[in-house]
Write a structure and sequence with these properties.
The chain contains 8 helices and 6 strands, in the order ααββααββαββααα. It starts with 11 loop residues before the first helix and ends with a helix. β5 and β6 form a beta hairpin. The model has no long low-confidence stretch (mean pLDDT 95). α1 packs across α2 and α4 packs across α8. The longest helix is centred in the middle third of the chain and has 15 residues. The protein has a two-stranded antiparallel sheet. Strands 3-4 form a two-stranded antiparallel ribbon. It is 29% helix and 8% strand. It has a domain of 49 residues. It is an alpha+beta fold.
């Protein structure tokens, strides 16, 4: 759940069981919860499911993502999932490795380019940008926003937040406000995302009187705290192309998402950079 309501136990199986039970009581409007054995059966069904692109087609060019590179769901199931644990490659750990994605290392600019198609090269460049392009992360609630202990900019990359190896979500609970729900007139969300059809909510702090306007309260719906307004979880990026429109509110194509991040953090991506980054994201 985008607001983190089912990410509370630091125990994947426990959270999934809770989610199944809450959906039964909520969506299905059952009068009693699930028997423990039924909840466990649902969890056992969910855990072996893995989604990822196996092929990508841009224009008339088709690339198999499971030949010579470890794309597709099999690699997730056989290598990525067994190595995962909550907090792996944590952004604030001294051992943090910003190269969270190595799926297309054989296509990155540092690898031999002979024999590669233009699309393979583009995907490789996109992965390299995602891992290594440094920009200042500023004003992000939960990291360095106005209600956080520090407002100092953080020099980071896309993987500073999308740090889980080969998957791209937060590897530990980290609700943050990057501005996707920001309803301010000149915000990056208003200028680059399809949000004009969404309702707008205004909230006033009882302590400071500060007013913020958003299209979604985010984590604040769960905690009731002013500082959590607009905070959301970082999603898994695998299988991204099949899930457009993106973000919690369905406000973006992959191209729009790239434009949003470029504007929000002044990354300075060129037109080619945006194309390459988009092709990489479509290949996950």
């Amino acid at each position: 759940m985008w607001d983190g309501r089912e990410s509370i136990l630091l125990d994947l199986e426990g959270d999934l069981a809770r989610q199944a039970n809450d959906a039964t009581l909520g969506h299905a409007e059952a009068t009693t919860g699930l028997p423990p054995e039924v909840a466990q059966a649902i969890v056992s069904f969910e855990l072996p499911l893995f989604s990822a692109q196996t092929k990508v087609k841009i224009g008339t060019t088709l690339v198999d993502l499971t030949t010579a590179v470890p794309g597709g769901p099999d690699y997730l199931a056989s290598a990525v999932e067994p190595a995962f644990y909550v907090g792996i490659n944590d952004t604030f750990d001294p051992s943090f490795d910003r190269e969270a994605f190595t799926l297309f290392a054989a296509w990155e600019p540092s690898a031999p380019q002979s024999g590669l198609t233009s699309l393979q090269k583009s995907i490789g460049r996109g992965e390299h940008i995602f891992n290594t392009r440094v920009f200042n992360i500023t004003g992000v609630g939960g990291l360095n926003g106005p209600l956080d202990a520090s407002q100092a900019p953080i020099p980071g990359t896309c993987t500073t937040c999308h740090n889980s190896p080969e998957v791209g979500n937060h590897s530990s609970p980290l609700p943050i406000n990057i501005g996707v729900a920001d309803a301010s007139l000149n915000s990056a969300a208003q200028k680059n995302l399809s949000v004009r059809h969404l309702p707008i909510y205004s909230f006033r702090s009882k302590v400071t009187g500060q007013v913020v306007t958003v299209t979604d309260p985010g984590r604040a719906l769960i905690t009731g705290r002013f500082r959590d307004i607009g905070k959301l979880k970082g999603p898994i990026l695998r299988g991204l192309a099949a899930r457009e429109p993106l973000f919690h509110n369905g406000s973006a194509t992959i191209a729009q998402a790239v434009n949003f991040y470029n504007a929000r953090f002044a990354i300075g991506l060129s037109s080619q950079d945006k194309t390459d980054l988009g092709n990489f994201l479509k290949s996950l």
